[in-house]
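Weekly sync, protein design subgroup
Attendees: M.S., D.O., the rotation student, P.L. (late)

Item 1: inverse folding check
M.S. brought a backbone from last month's batch and wanted to see whether the design step gives back something sensible before we order anything. D.O. pointed out we never logged the input encoding, so this time it goes straight into the notes. Structure tokens as presented (234 positions):
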């Protein structure tokens, strides 16, 4: 008896705040080497609604199922954009996974006792930046020092409106989710990551890594994405 296999999903990668999509290069190369079609969204991070719209324009270009992947603030973006019918699964990489009415701002409002405080500078003109001198330690502690310095000096200002944008309809309530916890993260506490993953009933994996785990551990990130792709292809 013959079986009909589902089409192999394509992969769409969504970056977080303070950075652009270039940090996905290592993950991109690994996934491409395994034959996946991979697209990287370049969000302006001005507002959540704008970033969801930009992400949906990328999804509109796809003809088949998509694994939608978000890092950090990108998790909020995929939580809303993931309602697109083409999205077969969500993958959160050390990411925010807000529920209805929640935003990144509400999720970081009450950090666990003793948790590191991200070195976010006071807003200037409606935009946020991280203290460059503390960027490596808080965001990219396991990234090569020269690369971490480049990331600090090439920061993308993060819009306050993006931080406060509330999710309307969380896609993880209806679609399978996967979550990679970075156990050495000093931006989003690992305890908070696990709590969001458990709430979303996500398939959870953990790896030693900083908040920039998608840069420092592309192998672990690509492995979970491929696990999601295989799961929805069965």
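Designed sequence read out in the meeting:
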């Amino acid at each position: 008896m013959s079986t009909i296999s589902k089409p192999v999903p394509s992969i769409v990668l969504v970056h977080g705040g303070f950075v652009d999509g270039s940090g996905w290069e290592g993950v991109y190369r690994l996934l491409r080497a395994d034959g996946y079609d991979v697209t990287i969204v370049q969000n302006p991070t001005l507002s959540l609604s704008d970033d969801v719209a930009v992400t949906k324009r990328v999804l509109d270009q796809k003809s088949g199922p998509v694994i939608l992947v978000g890092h950090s603030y990108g998790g909020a973006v995929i939580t809303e954009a993931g309602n697109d019918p083409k999205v077969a699964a969500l993958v959160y990489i050390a990411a925010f996974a807000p529920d209805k009415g929640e935003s990144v701002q509400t999720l970081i409002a009450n950090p666990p006792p003793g948790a590191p405080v991200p070195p976010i500078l006071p807003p200037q003109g409606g935009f946020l930046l991280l203290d460059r001198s503390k960027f490596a330690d808080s965001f990219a502690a396991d990234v090569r020092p020269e690369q971490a310095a480049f990331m600090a000096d090439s920061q993308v200002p993060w819009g306050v409106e993006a931080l406060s944008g509330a999710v309307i309809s969380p896609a993880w309530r209806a679609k399978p989710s996967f979550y990679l916890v970075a156990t050495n993260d000093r931006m989003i506490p690992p305890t908070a990551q696990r709590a969001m993953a458990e709430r979303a009933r996500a398939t959870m994996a953990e790896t030693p890594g900083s908040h920039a785990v998608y840069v420092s551990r592309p192998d672990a990130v690509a492995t979970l994405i491929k696990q999601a792709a295989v799961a929805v292809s069965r």
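Discussion: Residues 72 and 95 are 4 Å apart (CA to CA). The two ends are 16 Å apart (CA to CA).
Action: P.L. to compare against the previous round before Friday.
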